[in-house]
Amino acid sequence: MFHTVLCDLLGIELPILMGAMQGAGKPRLVAAVSEAGGLGVLPTYGEREADLVRQIEETRALTTKPFGVNITPLGAKFTERRAAICIEMGIPIVTTGLGDPGPRAVGDLRAAGIKVIPVVPTVRHALRLEAEGADAIVASGSEAGGHVGQVATLPLLPMVIDAVKVPVVAAGGIGDGRGFLAALAMGAAGIQLGTRLICTEESAGGAWYARQILATSEEGTIVSKSLTGKTVRAFATPEVKAYEAARLSGATAEELKQMERNIRQGRHQDDAYDGHHQAVVGQIAGMLNDPACIKPAAEVIREIVADAQRMADRLAKVVAS
Ligand SMILES: Cc1cc2nc3c(=O)[nH]c(=O)nc-3n(C[C@H](O)[C@H](O)[C@H](O)COP(=O)(O)O)c2cc1C
Prior knowledge:
By secondary structure, the chain is of the alpha/beta class. It has 13 helices and 11 strands. The relative contact order is 0.13.
């Protein structure tokens, strides 16, 4: 029932992509999502070249199903080197993070037969990347965890669908069967999940990450430049909130830099760390409150599909009556 053009394009059973997740999205989770019929995606942001190669090999040892690699465009050299690794290692699908990978990297990847799927925050970016040769587009709303633009998924998705001819995938704020079905109903060819997959048994995020998500309400995230220098949705810790308050009340560049240094020290800490973990997360953290939601990724995906199926059946009856 949920077989879409995206499934045919990528050779997958379910139109569900794993959003690349620096920190949480290591080979175990990538393989689990692909084994469940979706598309697992490895991040390259923060990964050294040798680590990426090792993680591709590790993922291949865990699944024979297709999986992708995400390239966050951090300058032409970084993007082109990561693209070369994907080509050398025969990766079938590359997604690119917020930002423009540039026509050269997209051209090289496509010339090697790799499907390229950029993640975009606006119609303008969608049109540019379609013109550069993208095979599909992920429209990512501001509810998402990670780097975000200013437009929410509900308005962004139909506008991108209207603007481009290639299949469009919805990302940002989707955490269950309701979001999946709504995205398909709006014309999306599939969805991309990030935050929901941090609360899985295969996530490499660490126990504190899932705990912090369980304790976070829908108001517990904030968009700030303090973590990476670009607008990122993250946990609204006291430090990040203080940074944003200082920024709005005219703190000097030097004062803000000092605060950024402290915040960035709080990233990627282990469970023994007694300060505030600074990490990215989406607004659907507010939907995840019950420790029982931490389960194998395959189960999460099965439930999303089964719930969407039930709701589609119910909706069909409502429409028919
Ligand atoms: C912990 C985390 C790390 C992320 N890292 C990346 C990344 O390295 N590259 C990228 O393109 N997107 C990254 N994202 C964005 C996700 O791939 C995905 O598009 C987003 O999480 C979808 O929104 P959601 O969190 O509401 O599901 C990250 C998101 C999270 C939550």
